[in-house]
Amino acid sequence: MSKGYLIAHLKEHDKEGMEKFKQMSGPTIGEHGGKVLVREPSPDVREGENLGTVVLIEFESIDAARKFYESEKYQAAKAVRELAAKAHLVLVEGN
């Protein structure tokens, strides 16, 4: 079965809000079998806009990634993040 990945590019403007988001989302990632593979605050952007931090999270499947994203706990964390950062976020299926 193919893995599922969440890729986020985040530009934070409220450090305290992002810390609260991390505290809320971290346990939820684990509850859904997610593993943070990359958290890079200074990515080497070659094309496009550099928003800031890039995060890559691996899940056992794309369905697990979707269940994480759609979960009540993550949606609560997301509401906090939306006040603290601009984000581009995608879910993809891969090896």
Describe this structure as you would to a colleague.
This protein has 95 residues and is α+β, with helices and mostly antiparallel strands. The protein has helices at residues 15-31, 62-70, 72-84; strands spanning 3-12, 35-40, 53-59, 85-94. A four-stranded antiparallel beta sheet has the order 2-3-1-4. Helix 1 (15-31) runs antiparallel to helix 3 (72-84). The longest helix has 17 residues, at 15-31. The mean pLDDT is 97.
State the distance separating the first and last CA atoms: 8 Å
Sheet-strand content, in percent, reads 25-35%
Taken from the alpha-carbon principal axes, the silhouette is: globular
Mean pLDDT: 97
Helical amount: 40-55%
Output the helix-strand order: EHEEHHE
Please summarize the sheet with the most strands.
Answer: 4 strands, antiparallel
- The helix-and-strand class reads alpha+beta
Number of helical runs? 3
Low-confidence stretches: none
Radius of gyration: 13 Å
Strand arrangement across the biggest beta sheet: 2-3-1-4
- Strand runs, count: 4
Task: Please write out the topology.
Elements: E1 3-12, H1 15-31, E2 35-40, E3 53-59, H2 62-70, H3 72-84, E4 85-94
Antiparallel strand pairs: 1-3, 1-4, 2-3
Helix pairs in contact: 1-3
Keywords:
95 residues, 4-stranded antiparallel sheet, globular
In a nutshell, what does this entry contain?
With 95 residues, the protein is of the alpha+beta class.
